[in-house]
Amino acid sequence: xxxxxxxxxxxxxxxxxxxxxxxxxxxxxxxxxxxxxxxxxxxxxxxxxxxxxxxxxxxxxxxxxxxxxxxxxxxxxxxxxxxxxxxxxxxxxxxxxxxxxxxxxxxxxxxxxxxxxxxxxxxxxxxxxxxxxxxxxxxxxxxxxxxxxxxxxxxxxxxxxxxxxxxxxxxxxxxxxxxxxxxxxxxxxxxxxxxxxxxxxxxxxxxxxxxxxxxxxxxxxxxxxxxxxxxxxxxxxxxxxxxxxxxxxxxxxxxxxxxxxxxxxxxxxxxxxxxxxxxxxxxxxxxxxxxxxxxxxxxxxxxxxxxxxxxxxxxxxxxxxxxxxxxxxxxxxxxxxxxxxxxxxxxxxxxxxxxxxxxxxxxxxxxxxxxxxxxxxxxxxxxxxxxxxxxxxxxxxxxxxxxxxxxxxxxxxxxxxx
Length: 418
Hints:
It is an enzyme of class 3 (hydrolase). Pathway: Amino-acid biosynthesis; L-homocysteine biosynthesis; L-homocysteine from S-adenosyl-L-homocysteine: step 1/1. It comes from Actinomadura sediminis. NAD(+) binds at residues 150-152, 184, 213-218, 236, 271, 292-294, 340. By secondary structure, the chain is of the alpha/beta class. It folds into two domains: 3-179 and 347-395, Rossmann fold (3-Layer(aba) Sandwich), CATH 3.40.50; 187-342, NAD(P)-binding Rossmann-like Domain (Rossmann fold), CATH 3.40.50.720. Helices cover 44% and strands 17% of the residues. The chain has helices at residues 10-21, 25-37, 53-64, 81-89, 103-114, 127-134, 151-162, 177-200, 216-227, 239-247, 255-258, 277-280, 301-307, 339-342, 349-369, 382-395, 405-411, and strands spanning 3-4, 44-49, 68-73, 94-97, 120-123, 145-148, 170-172, 208-212, 231-235, 251-252, 264-267, 288-291, 308-316, 319-324, 329-333, 377-378. The chain has an eight-stranded parallel sheet, sandwiched between helices. β3 (68-73), α4 (81-89) and β4 form a beta-alpha-beta unit. The radius of gyration is 22 Å and the shape is globular. The protein starts with a strand and ends in a 7-residue tail after the last helix.
């Protein structure tokens, strides 16, 4: 039995889902293939993901392959109540998601999804897998394998492996080339700035934007911020990534040096306290704080609360203004949660088309391959990543070259000299 806010919203949800589906040609092709081949017949899937129109496309694809799906939200601020209603009322999924639900309700929904005794689990941040291994070990016996689609979640999974805690194989869908390139770089780059602009209506041209982290998400953000006329400062802990940023012409500084000069701060690191009390204490009046890392720990919101003498909630939608003792005002977006999903609509459907295509094909592969996999973090098979890229190129009417037999022989021979 689903737990959603309002079943009468289903009609609006269906319209939104169908609109997004127009921009997801790869997932549509896979859905048609799944409907014919039924690779997931009888498989129970539990997912903890953002309840958005794009996620609905993945859920419908898994169902077309024969799976029964229970979906819990991975972020209450990103949940679309109309999409949840449509999935539950029109598409036959079990949905446990309400926009804005509190922490206790959030975990109660994860428990409800797990109580379906899933064969496969799909996670977005590792909260579902974490709950399985801490509070619901009684359900571990049915789980054969899982997928994780965030950097933060993969980091947590590797920590579990190091401690010998992970009990089943998990595929790091996040780490595929198509996911990094399309989702993290192009999706996060565009949708994060979209969320900031919607929440603040600020002009980014001429602003100093400080981006914490120069992984794929940080690179995409930096490229797009520079394209909009911003001065971009990168903070990093990895010398290789810092060097990459510097050679691309970005200013690279420690956060302590950047903090007094930034107009907008964006965190995309997967770590905590990246913006801390010391940084907040020297920021200029009106500085905007936004996070696009998975969890709301990258900006020390508790420190900000403690420093503020007054808080103006909702000065704009998803924007809270913190007034400090010296009169400076700092603006926190989306409560420090994912600004691109809370203040905007997340990645465009065309981006999630590839990420969820990777996810769907990996699920079908895991349905039979799980028995040969150890309880560890595994890569998506290269052929799946390549197939998704080929389908995407075909949908864009883009053709590429094919190796000739002689070229194939040359690449696979060590005997041919110069």
